[in-house]
Model the fold of this input.
Amino acid sequence: MKKNVLIIGKRSFIGSNLFIFIKKKLKVKLISIESFKKLTSKSLSKFSIIINCSINKNYVNKKYKLKNDYDLLVAKKIKNLKSKFVLISTRKVYKPKFNISEKGQLMPKCNYSKNKLKSERLAIKILDNRLLILRVANIVGQPKKNKRKIHRTFSDIFFDQAKKGYIYNNRNNYKDFISIKKFCEIVFNLLKFNAYGIYNVSLGKKIYLNELVNWLNFYNRRKITKIDIKKSFNNDNFTLNNRKLMNKIKTSNSLKEFKKECIKLSKYYFKK
Done:
């Protein structure tokens, strides 16, 4: 597979992990969004695939503004090139429920998901079949040194709470997840198979949050207080149907493997 990959997001959690994974298999370069803005069409034409992992904080927290949309910026800059674009979106564009397919009902509620859905639609108009959209479930993984997370994931919140001596009792709430290790493997395989269109990226299984907490807390030896939460809190239970993805790349994606990665993350936080 002869591909030259450009990853945008030098300080990104996802971008830095993708770079480390892909560089063992393909020629890849990792740059900041500011560096990307300065690249000419001639420079960009050297890359067969461009993956954007950079995001503007105002894009996450505020209503849509053109200047904050880095996905659209990329799509416009490569419009007249042959490069393919990987747009990393979110499962939050869907109405939360069990087993959501790529054709599931769209119901973004927060500014971030509304903005991502708009970016998806604008990029599709520009690039059509040169666009790969990944609607990703909650990612769990170890951040690389000095890498920022604009999004606070479930595991980020858990470790912040655990250090303070308490965790939430999540009752029967469940969500879908993916480890950063498996996410990187999936992205590489999608590139290998020249995939385009929209794919759900997840484990595709119910993971009850209290069970996940036990895995993440595995190496914690300090006393923890469990706090009950309001019934209205964190109740957007969902799983993504990842059948389209699995049929395309034909790889394993097991709960046992995910559990192992969570326990490894627990060791990183509580044993370091």
User: Anything to note?
Assistant: The two ends are 39 Å apart (CA to CA).
